[in-house]
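Example (one chain per record):
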Amino acid sequence: MNTSFEFFPPKTEKGKENILKTAKKLSLFSPEYFSVTYGAGGSTREGTLKTCVAIKNIGQDACPHLSGIGASKTSIKEILNEYEENGLKRIVALRGDLPSGLGGLGDFPYALDLIKFIKQTRGSFSIEIAAYPEVHPDAESESLDFENFLDKVNAGADGAITQFFFEEETYYKFMEKCKKEKVTIPVIPGIMPIHDFEALTRMAKNCSANIPIWLKEGMEKYPNKEDHLKYGVEVITNLCQKLLTFGAPGIHFYTVNREEPTSLIVKNLKLN
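Predicted structure:
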């Protein structure tokens, strides 16, 4: 059973120090890798690479995200060269968010275009893709969104990470569709520990992730920060336990660059 942890590139020197401290603490759980996000339009290109290198320097595998939207084939080749030169062997390949003022979609308007390009030009990379059990916010329909997922799988993806969700049935239903279409790559549930419910609500709205009424009501019962944290840890621990019992091949934690509550959940699950 594999675990992985996701970070975003810090913008300040203090943030860089803190993320390394967090990575060192989470590395005690022997994760398969740490992934590092990539800002809209390549805005964190340098930060993504530097964060990955810093993680590798503490003896952990790092996996950069790479977005194709707005990029040229030349710029993507340069980035892939940088990744290879720094010993990075796995990529999360995404379409990416559309940055404001973007002049055009570039050579990779969809994640599928980027995946095909990487496979054709750099076959040595292992490619993770995004899966959307509750449908991508820009998708025209659920069926078309799943067809897009299948296209990415068939283009050579080696694994998938889901958008975060809070009810196990969401994953079960998605995996039933995968089973029906004979999808054999591992589909790892992406799980968001609850550290700030207001911020989580905003993120969920942006990515069309449903926050169930029972979770909202449960959070309202615990205005105290400490109790709020405990309840969130309990909810996410239970969710992860159900997913693992179901047969999920691992858990990918969206840490938001924090050690807790992720570390508390992993300890509860005894995954180290």
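Caption: Residues 126 and 155 are 12 Å apart (CA to CA).
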